């Protein structure tokens, strides 16, 4: 079935550095790719999403790139701050499979002050 | 309401007990999802409703799990004869449209512990 692989599982960066999280997926027909941030004990919150008709989208310090040929998409956080520390999940909604959203296993990001 | 509300926030159940978890979606949201999130893992899809219709229940792990949304608003996830492996956070999410590429808003979740 469809799946999403997310790397790395843990990422530690110094404040001000950039962080990159990458996901690969198997369903070539997927056309919507959201990223969620989940702080400890809190709900997942959408931080950025991209649709398959564009290759890159940016929102202030956060950007997402999509390579449909290679079936991978990445989250880029620049000028990281301690409040960026959280678990980040990528997700896909496969074209086949109704409305199921498939999440990656998550990346725990630590930003050291 | 202002956001998706779930109750209870925490539930401890003895093995074999039945539990019912409630989700109040954002008012007017057509789509409602249930997910199961084990410790240290991403959410796993359980089931999807569009209004009162349950369109996808492919993620329900066994026939002990049952979900309903009789009036197209509040939803209840019921787990019968709970087992230890059912221990997880159960997340509910809603979105405004019945489309596949619409932002979903999550509730805080119900943390179920089966002892």
Integer average pLDDT of chain A: 92
| Number of beta-strand segments of chain B | 11
Radius of gyration of chain B: 13 Å
Q: Which range best describes the helical content of chain A: under 10%, 10-25%, 25-40%, 40-55%, 55-70% or over 70%?
A: under 10%
User: Could you report the average pLDDT of chain B, rounded to the nearest whole number?
Assistant: 94
Number of E strands of chain A: 11
- Helical content band of chain B: under 10%
Cα(first) to Cα(last) distance of chain B is 33 Å
Helix- and strand-based class of chain A?
Answer: mainly beta
Order of helices and strands of chain A: EEEEEEEEEEE
What percent strand of chain A?
A: over 45%
Describe the biggest sheet of chain A?
Answer: 6 strands, mixed
Structure described in brief:
Chain A is mainly β.
Explain what you see.
The complex is a heterodimer of chains A (113) and B (115). Chain A is mostly beta strands and 113 residues long. In chain A, 0% of the residues lie in helices and 54% in strands. Chain A has no helices and 11 strands. Chain A has strands spanning 4-7, 10-14, 19-25, 32-38, 45-51, 56-59, 62-67, 72-77, 86-92, 102-103, 107-112. Chain A is globular and about 45 Å long. In chain B, strand 4 and strand 5 form a beta hairpin. Chain B is globular, with a radius of gyration of 13 Å. In chain B, strands 2, 4, 5, 6, 9, 10 and 11 form a 7-stranded mixed beta sheet that branches. A 4-stranded antiparallel beta sheet of chain B has the order 1-3-8-7, with no helix packed on it. Chain B contains no helices and 11 strands. Chain B is mainly beta and 115 residues long. The relative contact order of chain B is 0.33. The A-B interface holds A 6, 31-32, 34, 42-46, 49, 51, 89, 91, 93, 97-106 and B 4, 31, 33, 40-45, 48, 50, 55-56, 58-59, 91, 100-101, 103-109.
């Amino acid at each position: 079935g469809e799946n999403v692989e997310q790397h790395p599982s843990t990422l530690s960066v110094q404040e001000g550095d950039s962080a990159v999280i990458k996901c690969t997926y198997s369903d070539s027909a997927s056309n919507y790719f959201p990223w969620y941030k989940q702080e400890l004990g809190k709900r997942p919150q959408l931080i950025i999403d991209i649709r398959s008709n564009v290759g890159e989208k940016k929102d202030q310090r956060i950007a997402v790139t999509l390579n449909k040929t290679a079936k991978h998409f990445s989250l880029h956080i620049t000028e990281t701050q301690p409040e960026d520390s959280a678990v980040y999940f990528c997700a896909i909604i496969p074209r086949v499979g109704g409305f199921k959203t498939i999440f990656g296993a998550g990346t725990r990001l630590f930003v050291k002050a | 309401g202002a956001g998706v509300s779930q109750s209870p926030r925490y539930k401890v159940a003895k093995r074999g007990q039945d539990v019912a978890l409630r989700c109040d979606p954002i008012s007017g949201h057509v789509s409602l999802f249930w997910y199961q999130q084990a410790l240290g893992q991403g959410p796993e899809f359980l089931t999807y409703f569009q209004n009162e219709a349950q369109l996808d229940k492919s993620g329900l792990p066994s026939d002990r799990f049952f979900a309903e949304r009789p009036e197209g608003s509040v939803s209840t996830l019921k787990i019968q004869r709970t087992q230890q492996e059912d221990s997880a956070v159960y997340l509910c999410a809603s979105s405004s449209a019945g489309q596949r590429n619409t932002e979903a808003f999550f509730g805080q979740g119900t943390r179920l512990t089966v002892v």
